[in-house]
């Protein structure tokens, strides 16, 4: 019996569904899904599982085997044509005998960008680009920003009272939000490769900064600590996955002791750690997605320097009052409303007894993640 043929959109949607199946963030690589179609029937499926693993196209081609000859290949990102941890996908596509390729988004990697499509066309493969391009840009907003700017995608996470405070006038902060909101916030950590806080947060709260869920990926803990006051026995140090950013004036002896505990210490010239330089250094370590959790001076600095891409703001139904209560955001702030950090693509949802407001700050952020996330660690 003949197999019914469906539209290219149908098969590309299946490729997107596969792209989101990676069990953990594949960063610094992109999310990619691929299907191979022969006579209207899907004969191969694949998705990228992380650095060093076969690309989505390779998985799909292996599943299809000889049935790939003369078939159509649908993939959410332009196939690669360079050697990295794995061989070029374009070579495998050509060897397989695939007749035509549909891809959603041109790969912003300069080693690939448009070159793969050109190479495939030169060998007689029919290539169609741009199918569901906006959706592909949303899926890979983190990867696209990293490739275009050399900086990580930065999410600012805040948890406050109704009047915008993160602690009472005596410094008490545990807990402003309820248990469900805190579980949700810990799930956000599993979506990012790094979680960043200031030294005052470490000294005041000794936070864990991990998702605290079995099987969830553990992020790097990153501490802004100009003078190396990070305690040797604090939880971020004991995580064995900790980076402390300081100035070159910090104590060499304390640096040696921290490094002896497995901490990576990054030194920078000047009186304060320069945020943009730190972000560039983190990218060199493969960290392209970062969750900034505060405190107020840290969040204010990221906003003042326009280094945030998205905000996740938890608001609890409690009022703390007092000008001495700690504000969520410090820094210089805006002198005029036109200079303020206005959010776009906002989305509001109830989480426990709190409201979670998500919104985009930069042009690299492509929409509320709550509308598209399949990360099992968030809910």
Describe the structure in your own words.
The protein is of the alpha/beta class and 379 residues long. It has twelve helices and 16 strands. It has a nine-stranded mixed sheet with strand order 11-10-9-8-12-6-13-16-15, with helices on both faces. β3, α3 (89-96) and β4 form a beta-alpha-beta unit. Residues 369-379 have low confidence and may be disordered.
Name a few traits of the molecule:
about 375 residues; alpha/beta; 9-stranded mixed sheet; 5-stranded mixed sheet; 12 helices; about 25% strand; disordered C terminus
Summarize the structure.
The protein has 379 residues and is of the alpha/beta class. It is built from twelve helices and 16 strands. The model is unreliable at 369-379 (pLDDT under 50).
List the helices and strands and how they pair.
Layout: H1 8-19, E1 33-38, E2 41-47, H2 56-64, E3 72-77, H3 89-96, E4 100-105, H4 115-122, E5 126-129, H5 133-139, H6 141-149, E6 153-160, E7 165-167, H7 179-191, E8 194-198, H8 199-205, E9 220-224, H9 235-238, E10 242-247, H10 252-260, E11 264-268, H11 275-284, E12 289-294, H12 296-304, E13 310-315, E14 326-327, E15 344-351, E16 354-360
Parallel strand pairs: 3-4, 4-5, 6-12, 6-13, 8-9, 8-12, 9-10, 10-11
Antiparallel strand pairs: 1-2, 1-3, 7-14, 13-16, 15-16
